[in-house]
Design goal:
Family (chain B): Belongs to the protease inhibitor I47 (latexin) family.
Number of domains of chain A: 2
Number of domains of chain B: 2
CATH class of the largest domain in chain A: Alpha Beta
CATH topology of the largest domain in chain B: Nuclear Transport Factor 2, Chain: A
CATH architecture of the largest domain in chain B: Roll
Domain Cystatin LXN-type (chain B): 1-54, 74-175
Oligomer: heterodimer
Strand content of chain A: 15-25%
Number of strands of chain B: 8
Largest sheet of chain A: 8 strands, mixed
Order of helices and strands of chain A: EEHHHEEEHHEHHEEHEHHEH
CATH architecture of the largest domain in chain A: 3-Layer(aba) Sandwich
Number of helices of chain A: 11
Radius of gyration of chain B: 18 Å
Helix content of chain A: 25-40%
Order of helices and strands of chain B: EEEHEHEEEE
Largest sheet of chain B: 5 strands, antiparallel
Structural class of chain B: alpha+beta
Helix content of chain B: 10-25%
Shape of chain B: globular
Number of strands of chain A: 10
Protein name (chain B): LXN protein
Strand order of the largest sheet of chain B: 4-5-6-7-8
GO molecular function, one term (chain B): metalloendopeptidase inhibitor activity
CATH superfamily of the largest domain in chain A: Zn peptidases
CATH class of the largest domain in chain B: Alpha Beta
Pfam family, one (chain B): LXN
Chain lengths: 372, 175
Amino acid sequence: QLDFWLAPRGPGHPVDVRVPFASLQPLKAHLEANGVSYSIMIEDVQALVDHEQMEMLRSRRQLPLSTNTFDYATYHSLDEIYAFMDLLVAEKPNLVSKLEIGRSTENRPLYVLKFSKGGKNRPAVWIDTGIHSREWVTQASGVWFAKKIVLDHENDKDLASILDKMDIFLEIVTNPDGFVFTQTQNRMWRKTRSRHSDSTCIGVDPNRNWDAGFGGPGASRNPCSETYHGPYANSEPEVKAIVDFVKNHGNIKAFVSIHSYSQLLLYPYGYTSTPVPDQKELHQISEKAVAALSSLYGTNYKYGSIITTIYQASGGTIDWTYNQGIKYSFTFELRDTGRYGFLLPAKQIVPTAQETWLALKVIMLHAQGHLY
Amino acid sequence: DIGDVGHKYHLELVLEDVLDKDSTVNCTAEVLYHLGNKNIAPDVHFTIEGELKNTDEADNIFYNRIKSLEKELVAENIPDSHGNVSPEMEPIRLLAWVASGYVIWQNSTENTKFQLAQIKHVKQVKRSDEYLEFDYMILLHEMVSQEIIPWQMTVLWHPQHGVQVTQDSRQPKHA
């Protein structure tokens, strides 16, 4: 049952052999008993074969030639998502443009799609997905939102009215380094891929790295922790890029950061139990947004401030944006509630995106009708 | 709040059959988290109002299928990265879910919220008796710390005798 990959040639010449699992121990014993030295070149051939199969299937999938043939009901690679963005811009250049707002730790471009019907520095809505790389349904939903905006910008009266007054900025892959890592090495990777201290551990939690209660309870100062806040606020280029963008733009009126999982709609604060001054209004918007979301498939969401609804978390995105004066700051935790968790089946991508979009429209519509 | 003892919670919950959303059963429970020593599992007492569905047929089909395998079952990454679970692996996943419930219970405090994130690896262990035995390596997701914790558990199952976790141990996290 031994499968020789480098056949015996004679004494002094090495031999490579694939050994079925059941024959491993007997073979090792035999070699050792006869003083034949050996080393393991490939631990698990089947794993390699499986991986290659998968890779081949993927490359055989032709790159879609338009956003109409793009498969929204499956998870895509970073390259595929970046290619999608370019396709979308090419198809609708009067509505969509692509901005590079910075570079990640591993020097990947950070792209934001801008949806605008004109004007100059209009009040804007910001949406980001994929800040935590393992939350795959969020990047996938971001792709769907982008297409949805293009499809509906004229015929959906709510969206048309929003775009008459406001621009929409959408960052689909907010943490590209982490995202690539989830595809190549560790599906459960959450953080960035930066190395700061002389710790062997890599990565900072980008949702603890913002300058709002930075370093306080609700984040970890241990570089090996999943909630490591980093050496200082905005240490992560992925975070700094958004901070710079928001400050330079100066006219963002609603900010939505999207995560999974738990099925929650949250508003600030996470770092303190002091309620925000706009608590009542944000709570009412949340109630309406959640009702709209549930109306589609009956998906149940809870809502409230971060600290009262999930846990104390310091240095979070929307705590910072709220303190910058962006009143309508919200975070979503999308499907599900733990049955599949981060490994949400691809067939749930589109339903998740569809229902979430209804909630997003409630928020955007409210902002548009209550500009400040 | 029970002075010097701990915190007791009274819960009213609805159990929903994962395989049949319309099938629900009411349940009441009392959970006591002990003060001080975090190494003791919380006390749990519960009452189910009504009956759980009979699963004998499906249990026996699964049991006989595994018993008749020529080689011990081995599998990994359930679900896979895309959330896929093959139909043959679905009972293996459900078994892990139940067994991980025990591990979660034994390791829960008022400040933890665990979910089974993934089965990294499962290997059937041959037995001479009627039980099925599986050696699982699972990943638990702890919501508050956001940590992914590898955990090994040895699970025994038999259609009439139910699930038992005979051994479990927390594993070191990879870098």
